[in-house]
Every structure is written in structure tokens, then in C-alpha cells.
């Protein structure tokens, strides 16, 4: 479903003609806020722990070369074509001059700086640890290209992303195509929140949350695969035989 269709449906749900102060720009903003909310995959249910899920279809991947003795690197901000905005890291690897990939270990920057056992990471060398802080990727050690045949390493970042803003009427994304009602209901909830209609806001918020929970359950099934039951190994068969 295109952005224009979502706008029309949200306007109908809100009966926007009844609110002279409600503009099309506001409806567009609520739709994009709904998309960002969906990307976060978080549901708060009173009396229950926070439900948080990273959708498998929002994984993106970028690469960049290291710079000699440079520790900090900007994370994707969504302003580059086809490079989605960074939300959360999934995997960070360092690729050396021989195309050998080494996963980096994630740590907190403060733990490295405050612990004498990690003092060796503060100098120059081959990066083995990364941190995410201040919307930047930090490498420890600082890259010393002499350790890589005097060539830069390639940083490969696999991450969960925020989708680009919907701007043109013909714009679509995975949510508007496969789960349009989720975006419509959440955007409508935001609209009724603006209109201070608490009952209607809660009605559409509950519908959006229920749909998001269904999506989370389905995405878990995709990640984990089906579970076969009622099966047992044949007699005499085992791994390694």
C-alpha cells in the first residue's frame, strides 16, 4: 500500500474533516512516527516485562575502511541512499588484507577505560573490541595498519535499522506493503492522542499493539524455524558414525 493510501485511511479513521486544525502534514508525521515505533519492536503491557524484538527483515549491512590510528567512526544516519539509519548492532567484523573475517567483541567504553586489565586496548594495534556510544562506533585498539600489511582493515557492520521516512505519495516500505493496518492503527492512535480523545486513542493503540505482538511471534518462528515433534533417531544412528 502506498503512502498516499495510508494517509487516506488514517484520515478516514480520524474523521479528519471534523478537526479543521488537523493538517495533511500532521497525518504524514503520525504515519512516519508509527513506522519508527514499529521498527523499535517494543511493547509495554502494564504489569508485564517490556517486550522487545529485533525484526529479521530490518537487518542492513555496511562496510567502511579503517583510518590509521582513528578510533571513532560515524554510524549510518539514514542520509545516504539505500543505507538505512542505524538502530542497534547485530554483528561487527574486521576483515583483514587476506579477506579473513574476525568478529569483534562488544564492550562498554567505560569498562575499558576504567579497568587496568584492558589498558592494552587503549593503544595502537589490531582492533579486537568495539563499543557503540554517542551514535559512533569505537574501535579498541586504535588501528595500526602495519599489523595488516600496511593496508586498512574493512569494518563490516550488520545492524538493525530504522526505515527511511515516507515522503512521496508513491513511497512504500515493508510495513506499508505487508502490514499496513499496523501503521494505520498506530498513526490513528497518535492522531486521537493529539485530538485528546482518550477512548479512541486507546482503542487504536490496543489494536496496533495486538498486531505488533502477532508480528513478533511470526518473526520469532522465521528466526527459529519449525520444530519437528514425534521423531526419534533410527536404531544405531548417531552423529559422527
Give structural notes.
The chain is α+β, with helices and mostly antiparallel strands and 241 residues long. It has two domains: 109 residues, no CATH class; 98 residues, no CATH class. Helix content is 34%, strand content 22%. The protein is built from six helices and twelve strands. Strands 3-12-5-6 form a four-stranded antiparallel β-sheet. It has a four-stranded mixed β-sheet with strand order 4-10-9-7, with no helix packed on it. A two-stranded antiparallel sheet has the order 1-2. A hairpin with a 5-residue loop joins strand 5 and strand 6. Helix 1 packs across helix 2 and helix 5 packs antiparallel against helix 6. It starts with a helix and ends in a 17-residue tail after the last helix. The C terminus is likely disordered.
Topology, element by element:
Elements: H1 3-14, H2 24-40, E1 42-43, E2 51-52, E3 59-65, E4 72-74, E5 85-95, E6 101-103, E7 105-106, H3 109-114, E8 124-125, E9 129-133, E10 136-140, E11 142-143, E12 154-162, H4 174-178, H5 180-194, H6 198-224
Amino acid at each position: 500500500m502506498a503512502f498516499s493510501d495510508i494517509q487516506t485511511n488514517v484520515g478516514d479513521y480520524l474523521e479528519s474533516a471534523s478537526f479543521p486544525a488537523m493538517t495533511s502534514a500532521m497525518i504524514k508525521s503520525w504515519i512516519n512516527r508509527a513506522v519508527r515505533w514499529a521498527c523499535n519492536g517494543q511493547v509495554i503491557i502494564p504489569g508485564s516485562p517490556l517486550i522487545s524484538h529485533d525484526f529479521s527483515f530490518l537487518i542492513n549491512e555496511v562496510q567502511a575502511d579503517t583510518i590509521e590510528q582513528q578510533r571513532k567512526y560515524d554510524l549510518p544516519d539514514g542520509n545516504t541512499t539505500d543505507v538505512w539509519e542505524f538502530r542497534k548492532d547485530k554483528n561487527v567484523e574486521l576483515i583483514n588484507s587476506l579477506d579473513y573475517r574476525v568478529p569483534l567483541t562488544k564492550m562498554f567504553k567505560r569498562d575499558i577505560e576504567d579497568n587496568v586489565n584492558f589498558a592494552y586496548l587503549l593503544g595502537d594495534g589490531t582492533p579486537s573490541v568495539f563499543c557503540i556510544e554517542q551514535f559512533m562506533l569505537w574501535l579498541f585498539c586504535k588501528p595500526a595498519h602495519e599489523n595488516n600489511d600496511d593496508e586498512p582493515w574493512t569494518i563490516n557492520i550488520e545492524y538493525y535499522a530504522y526505515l527511511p521516512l515516507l515522503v512521496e505519495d508513491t513511497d512504500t516500505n515493508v510495513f506499508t506493503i505487508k502490514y499496513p493496518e499496523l501503521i494505520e492503527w498506530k498513526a490513528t492512535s497518535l492522531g486521537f492522542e493529539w485530538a485528546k480523545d482518550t477512548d479512541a486513542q486507546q482503542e487504536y493503540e490496543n489494536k496496533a499493539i495486538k498486531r505488533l505482538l502477532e508480528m513478533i511471534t511470526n518473526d520469532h518462528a522465521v528466526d527459529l524455524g519449525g520444530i519437528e515433534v514425534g521423531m526419534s533417531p533410527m536404531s544405531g544412528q548417531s552423529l559422527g558414525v
